[in-house]
Here is the input.
Amino acid sequence: MHLTDQSSGAGAFDRPSSGTTPPSTVAAATSAASRIDEATVLQRQLEIARLRHAAEVTELRRQVLEARKLAGLGELLGTTTHEFNNALTTILNYAKLGLRHRDQPTRDKALERILSAGTRAAKITASVLGMSRSSSARFEPVNLNLLIEDVLVLLERELMKYRVQVEREFAPVPKVSANPGQIQQVLLNLLVNARQAMVGGGRLILRLSHDQPSGLVDLMVRDTGCGMTPDVMRRIFEPRFSTKSGPDETGKGGTGLGLSACKEIVDAHRGRIRVESAPGKGTAITIRLPVQQPAS
Ligand SMILES: Nc1ncnc2c1ncn2[C@@H]1O[C@H](COP(=O)(O)OP(=O)(O)OP(=O)(O)O)[C@@H](O)[C@H]1O
Ligand SMILES: [Mg+2]
Here is the structure.
């Protein structure tokens, strides 16, 4: 802007055709004008470089988000393949049992087990398909109660194996405005962290409540695990901050990206995330999401 003003000012000096201006003044004015032209060109080049840089940053940010989403899906795939395999093993074993024992009660029992394992396998695939499908940034009315159950289907066995008892405290809550795949990812991270904090087992309390005055629904994940010191608590949302030495035997934990991704997702939902924790006393993480407003 500043340079453009100077350039129009130079235009006022640049009147050699009147014949009254001495040649030295004309030369000086011409060289000033060419310097101003050069500055304008430089200014334009700088602006183009700045725009190009901004576009590159936007593209890189998009790629990082995409990579994080893929990493999340990769982790999910690990968990679900394992769970799916468990269901398949049950189906195969009971089918063999039914073939070996021809009496009616054994066959009935085998078929019942096959049916329930098959239903579970179907739920697992539906849940994974749901998560990968809703990986776009679309928001929709979400029933958190059902979403929690979908995520628990995937972790049920793992929680049982680590002697974690799940307790549900669900008050009736309205639907929230959310991207279901992203909120499932948040919940998965919180549940895995809770499970990892409870070495030797414990209680995992999931609570849903509606805070009418704020128009938010609270989803709390509380564990009776090791808890955190104030120093750790201050840093948990930093990308790459982890107190874990690496992935555990289920292949999870240690990258330090879980909670930073959770925060990013909750922020994008214009929600809040609150952490309460004390060493030896367990941890409660609450995510608060806006209630879906009725279409006007
Ligand atoms: N429920 C919890 N109880 C105790 N500490 C926790 C809990 N949740 C998170 N933390 C602490 O916060 C840190 C960061 O958690 P975050 O989920 O971001 O990373 P991570 O679990 O270490 O690795 P990953 O990114 O693979 O999940 C953890 O390393 C742990 O120290
Ligand atoms: Mg984690």
Summary: The beta strands are 140-142, 164-170, 176-178, 202-211, 216-223, 272-278, 282-290. The two ends are 45 Å apart (CA to CA).
